[in-house]
């Protein structure tokens, strides 16, 4: 019984090895197709500006990847600059809002005080009653 079990194990290992040998080239081919497709998409996204820089030359995959890295790096730097400007603007706006808020409320409070002192005059102190 033992030889049959070891023979079955050996056969199953051979099948796994054979299956791996058959699948490996297919998996590799699919992986390469995905990579090539993504690189072509990057090339089309880079647009005519980058293609004008090298009009007659055939761009290699490495060139497309390098250009993409440069473009994304520039975009990231611009994004950081925009974020800094927005934060600075928000700080200025909030500080000006605080200053305006204090300036706006001071005339209102004096107006409220004067109107409330007018209401305390003897002529207005009597309540009007409809009955």
TrEMBL record:
SMART domains named in the record: HLH (SM00353)
Subcellular locations according to the entry: Nucleus
Gene3D superfamilies: Helix-loop-helix DNA-binding domain
Superkingdom to which the source organism belongs: Eukaryota
Residue ranges of the TM segments: none
GO molecular function annotations of the record: DNA binding; protein dimerization activity
GO-annotated biological processes: animal organ development; cell differentiation; negative regulation of cell differentiation; nervous system development; neuronal stem cell population maintenance
The entry's keywords: Developmental protein, Differentiation, DNA-binding, Neurogenesis, Nucleus, Repressor, Transcription, Transcription regulation
Domain BHLH: 19-75
Gene Ontology CC, one term: nucleus
Start and end residues of each stretch annotated as Disordered: 109-131
Function, in words: Transcriptional repressor of genes that require a bHLH protein for their transcription. Plays an important role as neurogenesis negative regulator.
Subunit organization: Transcription repression requires formation of a complex with a corepressor protein of the Groucho/TLE family.
PANTHER family, sorted: BASIC HELIX-LOOP-HELIX TRANSCRIPTION FACTOR, HES-RELATED (PTHR10985)
Listed name of the protein: Transcription factor HES-5
Gene source species: Salarias fasciatus (Jewelled blenny)
